[in-house]
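Hi,

Apologies if this is the wrong queue. I'm a grad student, and the batch job for PA domain-containing protein from Pipistrellus nathusii produced an output file that my downstream script rejects. I'm not sure whether the problem is my script or the file. Here is the sequence I used:
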Amino acid sequence: MVVGAAGWWCLVLWLPACVAAHGLRIHDYLYFQVLSPGDIRYIFTATPAKDFGGIFHTRYEQIHLVPAEPSEACGELSNGFFIQDQIALVERGGCSFLSKTRVVQEHGGRAVIISDNAVDNDSFYVEMIQDSTQRTADIPALFLLGRDGYMIRRSLEQHGLPWAIISIPVNVTSIPTFELLQPPWTFCSCRFLEDFSVPLWRH
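Support response: The file is valid. Your script probably expects a header line. Output copied below for reference.
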């Protein structure tokens, strides 16, 4: 991948500066850090759902991030027992973002992180909106880049682990070396996907 001048600028400076340059505010993002496995011990960037789901009222210093089975989490989860009181990592597709959030909530999850199903997506954040069912969800729902989700799952598979251990949310403004802790495969050229010609809840 060839990185333009703006891309190199973003690699050198902190993400907050990159966010400002692309017209987004730092509070449009929520951050979490993988503590284990060690090969993906990075700070990841996610975006909260726009008009559904709850917020984090406390910081979890150590909590499990459990990949849902099936990964799209559109119905009963075969590993729902392990998601109870933990955070689920699910994949985009098959049903609405809200439906996935409700499935995780019904299994007792504290929050859900929904990664894009395009594993090469390392820059486009989708704005997750409510579907047309008038349902609600109470737990936080976050969108994660497809590349980040893929790398987390791949690491867990390589290590034979059923979950990662993460800290969430992370206050990046208090971390002087934040720019050194970002995933090396993700460039700061991220922006929201704002083409509303297709309802995003269907994705």
